[in-house]
Structure formats: structure tokens, C-alpha cells
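Researcher: Here's the sequence for the chain we discussed earlier.
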Amino acid sequence: MAARHVQREDLPQLENALMDAFKDDPLTQWLYPDGGETCRPWFRVALRAGLKRGHTYRSADGTGAAIWAPPGVGNLDRHEGGELMQAMAEHYGEAGSARLAAAAEATGAAHPPTPHFYLFIIGVSGRSRGVGAELLAPVLRICDEQGWPAYLESSNPLNESFYHRHGFSGLYEIVPEGGPPLLGMWREPQGASTR
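Model: Thanks. This is the structure I predict for it:
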């Protein structure tokens, strides 16, 4: 099966899939210690932002999604970031806002300056074999054909071997103040094509 572009009508199903996929994720648990519905605004905003940027994919079975930002395009604009901060402040107050700001500051400071495709979020509900690879395939194919590198931050050490199998290498650890470490990972284009 092949991943396809997300459509607006897919968003509610994919919010649920991402919430399930990230329920045991260290960064999500730190940002949203109550779990459950408190993290829904994060995935809602991220999916809507990805839909506008044109590189957001869903698995054929609807159990997963990958949200990419193309080279030179931010994953969230000021308005979208403000929505996340407002939702965080409403539920967790200043402490929650400080956690979200620390995560954004740490990942922003570590973001490579070289133009690249950025994998903002990928998640699969359950452990469906092959769905993660299905979700990566469309953009990694573009990267290889057009000569673009790709970058991501892995927030769960259990996922790092998956990314390694798809050509990503660990660059450096990123540690938000008071939060769990993430691993910045980079992938050079694979194949003969260059930009």
C-alpha cells in the first residue's frame, strides 16, 4: 500500500492516530503530563499546518501520518505557534508555556541551516509493520530524486533504529531545559541526482 496526501476530511482520524502513537513518547509525556485529550491541540494544529504546506501524508489504512515541511518553509507560522501556546497556557498555565517554549527554543537553535526537508511529526497508532516506511517513502523519494537532505528530531530512542534503516544518522543531542533529550538526525540524498 502507498501513502497518500492528507485531505481535510482525514484530520479527525489522524489526530486520534497521532495521539495514540505518541502516548508513550518521552517528549509528549513531558509537555503534556496529563496525557489524553490535553495533547489534541498539538496534533490538530500540526496536521492543519502540514496540510497547508503540501507534504503531509497518511497511511493507506489511516493508522499513521507524516508531517513534513519543504526546504525553506517553517513547520509552523507565528499564528500556529500562538495557537499551541494558548492551548498549553489554558491547560497548564505558566509551567506548561515554559515547557513548550523550552522545547521550541532548543529545537529551533539546533535546526540545521542547510536547506532540507524537515520531518516535523511521524506517528503510527499501534505497531503496524511497514506503515512507518510507507509514510516516509513519498518525501524520501523526492529527496533522492531532487538531491535534498532531510532532517528530524527523534524524541524516542526506541525509534532511532527505524530512522537509521532509512538512511538517517545521528548528529547531536538536543536537550530542552528541564526536558528529555532528543536526537537530531540527518539524511543525505541517496542516488545520483543533485540539485
